[in-house]
Write a structure and sequence with these properties.
By secondary structure, the chain is mainly alpha-helical. The protein has a single domain, classed as TIM Barrel. It is built from seven helices and three strands, in the order ααβααβαβαα. The chain has a three-stranded parallel β-sheet with strand order 1-2-3. α1 runs parallel beside α3. The model has no long low-confidence stretch (mean pLDDT about 85).
């Protein structure tokens, strides 16, 4: 899924150019992911793998918190499968290497679901993309294994690319 459409998201009141982009990328992804999980799409199609791209990864914090709360309040799922889908690598989430929420999410669910995504050549030029990679490599908030996974291994595994 590409989080770019703002049609039907209630963002038609945003008048400043670029302002709706603050929400429409991550909002479209959180809606799609929530719908797929609660409607049992991953259960109906046990080999399905889905990537949620170009919305960063911060939206996952909200989704995890709300789904956990709903599980406690309403008992919607027996084993709260979003964690299983994330840890099995069935859901991949594109993230910028310098995303402030990434270290927290890696600590919370592990590095498996996250893959570096630069949006090159649209909003980001080559030097900017390489700067994000360097920031990730130099970060002391992620261990080396998580960095390798996020910067290449996870995407290679998800898309079944050779080493």
């Amino acid at each position: 899924f590409h989080g770019a459409s703002n049609s039907g998201l209630g963002l038609d009141t945003f008048m400043v150019p670029g302002s709706s982009q603050t929400l429409h990328h991550p909002l479209a992804l959180i809606i799609a992911c929530t719908s797929m999980i609660y409607n049992g799409v991953f259960e109906q199609f046990p080999n399905l793998r889905v990537a949620f791209l170009e919305g960063g990864c911060a939206w996952l914090v909200l989704l995890l918190d709300r789904m956990e709360r709903n599980q406690e309040a309403f008992g919607v799922f027996h084993d709260w499968p979003i964690l299983r889908y994330l840890q099995e690598g069935r859901i991949m989430i594109g993230c910028e290497g310098n995303d402030p929420s990434l270290p927290y999410l890696v600590e919370r669910v592990g590095a498996i679901p996250f893959a570096y995504s630069s949006d090159y050549p649209h909003e980001v030029d080559y030097p900017s993309a390489m700067h994000e990679v360097e920031e990730t490599l130099q970060s002391n908030l992620l261990d080396d294994e998580a960095k390798r996974a996020i910067l290449g291994d996870n995407a290679r595994r998800f898309y079944k690319l050779p080493k």
